[in-house]
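Retry 2 of 3 after timeout on previous attempt. Resubmitting C-alpha cells to design endpoint.
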C-alpha cells in the first residue's frame, strides 16, 4: 500500500430527511466500517501514520452514532458492542499518541531555546523506543480474534437492522431528519452549558470533556446534518467547532506531552547525554505548561464563536 491509498473517514452516504432513522444510520455506519477495514493492514504495517489515524476516526464516529442514536439499535445487543468499540479505541490510542509525538518531534523541540534543542535527542530516541513497543501491542490488538469478531458482529447487525423488531428500538422508524435535529439541539445545548461553567481554574478534565462533546456535534453535522439541513448554517457551525476543537486539542496535547516528558525522565537520564537532556526536558515542560495556560486564556473568545446569541438562534431555528 502507499499513502495515496489511505481511505479517509470523511464519508458521505446519500440519505433523505424522511428516511427511516435505522436505515440511514446503518448506511452511514456500514461506510465507516468499510473505512476501518480499508485501513486495517496499513495501520498494522505502520509505514504511514495516516492509516491508524483514519481507522481511529472511523471508530470514534461509529461510537458517536451508537451513542447519539442508541434508540435505533436493539437494547440488548448495543451495550456489548459499544463496550468493545470503546476497548478498540482505547487500545489503539497509545500507538497513535506516540506516532504524533515522534512525527511532530521537531515542533516539540522548537519550543525550547535553540541552544538546548540538540540536548533533547535522547528524548526523541526514548519516544521512538516506546513507539515501537506500542506498535507491537497495536498489531496484536488489530489482529486479535476479538477485534475480528467485533467487526463481523457489527457488520451483521447493520445488515439486518431494519428487519429487526422495533419493540426495543423506539426511534427506529422515526425520520432521520427529526432524530438528527433532536440530537444536534441537545448536544449543542450541553456544549453551551459545559462551556459556560468553565473558568480559568477549571480542571483539565472539564476542557477535555467539552472537546469530546464538540466532536460529537461536529460528527453529527458532518455525517448527517450536511445532507439534511441548510448548508449555509451547517458549514459555518462546523468551522466554528473546528476552531474550538483546535484550541481544546492544543490544551489537551500540552497536558499529555508534559505528563509524558515527566514519565520519561528516569529512562532518559540513564542514556548517553541523559543529564543534559533532562535539563532541557525541564525547560520543555515549563514551555508546555505555559502554552497550555495560554490556551486557557484564549478559550473564552473561541467559545463565544459557537455560543453567541446569534448561533443559539440559528441552531434553534434550524434544528429546533
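Retry 2 succeeded. Sequence:
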Amino acid at each position: 500500500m502507499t499513502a495515496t491509498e489511505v481511505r479517509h473517514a470523511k464519508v458521505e452516504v446519500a440519505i433523505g430527511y424522511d428516511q427511516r432513522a435505522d436505515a440511514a444510520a446503518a448506511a452511514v455506519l456500514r461506510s465507516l466500517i468499510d473505512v476501518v477495514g480499508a485501513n486495517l493492514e496499513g495501520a498494522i504495517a505502520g509505514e504511514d501514520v495516516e492509516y491508524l489515524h483514519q481507522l481511529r476516526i472511523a471508530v470514534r464516529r461509529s461510537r458517536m452514532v451508537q451513542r447519539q442514536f442508541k434508540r435505533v439499535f436493539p437494547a440488548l445487543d448495543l451495550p456489548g458492542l459499544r463496550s468493545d468499540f470503546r476497548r478498540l479505541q482505547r487500545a489503539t490510542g497509545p500507538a497513535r499518541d506516540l506516532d504524533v509525538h515522534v512525527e511532530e518531534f521537531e515542533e516539540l523541540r522548537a519550543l525550547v531555546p535553540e541552544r538546548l534543542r540538540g540536548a533533547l535527542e535522547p528524548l526523541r530516541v526514548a519516544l521512538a523506543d516506546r513507539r515501537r513497543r506500542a506498535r507491537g501491542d497495536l498489531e496484536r490488538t488489530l489482529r486479535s480474534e476479538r477485534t475480528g469478531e467485533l467487526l463481523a458482529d457489527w457488520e451483521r447487525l447493520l445488515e439486518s437492522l431494519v428487519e429487526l423488531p422495533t419493540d426495543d428500538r423506539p426511534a427506529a422508524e422515526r425520520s432521520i431528519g427529526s432524530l438528527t435535529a433532536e440530537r444536534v439541539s441537545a448536544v449543542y445545548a450541553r456544549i453551551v452549558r459545559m462551556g459556560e461553567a468553565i473558568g480559568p481554574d477549571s480542571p483539565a478534565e472539564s476542557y477535555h470533556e467539552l472537546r469530546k462533546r464538540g466532536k460529537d456535534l461536529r460528527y453529527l453535522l458532518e455525517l448527517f446534518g450536511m445532507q439534511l439541513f441548510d448548508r449555509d448554517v451547517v458549514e459555518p457551525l462546523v468551522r466554528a467547532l473546528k476552531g474550538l476543537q483546535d484550541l481544546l486539542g492544543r490544551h489537551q496535547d500540552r497536558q499529555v506531552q508534559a505528563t509524558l516528558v515527566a514519565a520519561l525522565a528516569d529512562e532518559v537520564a540513564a542514556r548517553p547525554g541523559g543529564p543534559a537532556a533532562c535539563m532541557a526536558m525541564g525547560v520543555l515542560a515549563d514551555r508546555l505548561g505555559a502554552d497550555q495556560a495560554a490556551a486557557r486564556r484564549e478559550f473564552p473568545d473561541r467559545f463565544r464563536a459557537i455560543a453567541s446569541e446569534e448561533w443559539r438562534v440559528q441552531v434553534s431555528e434550524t434544528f429546533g
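Attempt log closed. Residues 274-307 form the longest helix (34 residues).
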